[in-house]
Amino acid sequence: MSSASVAALIATVLYVAVSILQARHAARRSEASMAPIYALAIPAVVLHGYAAIAMMSGESGFSFSLFRAGSLIFWMVNLSLLVSLLWRPLQNLMVVLFPLSALALLLSNFGPADGSRLTDLSGGMLTHISTSMLAYAVLAIAACQAAAVAMQDHQLRNRQTRGLVQLLPPLQLMESMLFEIVWVGLLLLTVSIGSGFLFIEDIFAQHLVHKTVLSLCAWLLFATLLWGRHQLGWRSQMAARFTLGGFVALALAYAGSKFVLELILERA
């Protein structure tokens, strides 16, 4: 077994342990001490990063297959989440994100392998790829946050004071965190799309046009949401709809096409 596989398995166990620990704190409605959370989460994210990069890289170039790129994106999501915890109470997202990250690691390590690799990447293309993945990671956190905001708002409207409402910060703070995350994600997405136009020879080529159009649709949805927040005071349900709609467009732009090409048509 390779060192990357060992790292992936250890990270998987740590992810599951952190998610169980945080879920127990949430169920008891008690404040979780961040010391044991970080003690498990930081090594998990470090090992995940090593495993993801090792499985993507090779002598013949970089593999951006569905499962391997997905594992790298989840690593970026978790890294962004750990950084965000320094100033925002987002630890309950670990209950959802960490088990999914464990699954992504296992699929990347033991799932179908893609033989095609990218070689001789220029600095411009590396900028485009890295900002695209970072934008996807940050906006994935925004999507999880939007789902929590929507459920919390629904419970409050129906005067349900137990369950999710008791586990989350006040709705106003949840909304504020959502828009902060969307702002960061939109900036990264702007850089990603801009670098694509600059460094990809024909961004509207047949094999790229769907990704370009869907990415632009996602950008418009997020930009419209932030405009509506500033000009019309959009909140809660409206914010959740636009955030989730924008993330679905991004997911279809990359993961949807990769799924069809690699797993259904069996070609890279």
Topology, please?
Elements: H1 3-27, H2 34-56, E1 57-58, E2 61-62, H3 66-84, H4 94-110, H5 123-157, H6 164-167, H7 171-199, H8 209-232, H9 236-264
Antiparallel strand pairs: 1-2
Structural summary, described in words:
With 268 residues, the protein is mainly α. The chain folds into 2 domains: 1-64 and 90-106, no CATH class; 122-268, no CATH class. It has helices spanning 3-27, 34-56, 66-84, 94-110, 123-157, 164-167, 171-199, 209-232, 236-264; strands at 57-58, 61-62. A hairpin with a 2-residue loop joins strand 1 (57-58) and strand 2 (61-62). Helix 1 (3-27) runs antiparallel to helix 2 (34-56) and helix 5 (123-157) crosses helix 9.
Explain briefly what this protein structure is.
The chain has 268 residues and is mostly helical. Helices cover 76% and strands 1% of the residues.
- Report the sheet with the most strands, covering strand number, pairing sense and barrel closure: 2 strands, antiparallel
Global mean pLDDT: 81
Number of domain modules: 2
Low-confidence stretches: 260-268
Radius of gyration: 19 Å
The helix content, as a percent range, equals: over 70%
Strand order of the largest sheet: 1-2
The run of helices and strands is: HHEEHHHHHHH
| Beta-strand proportion | under 5%
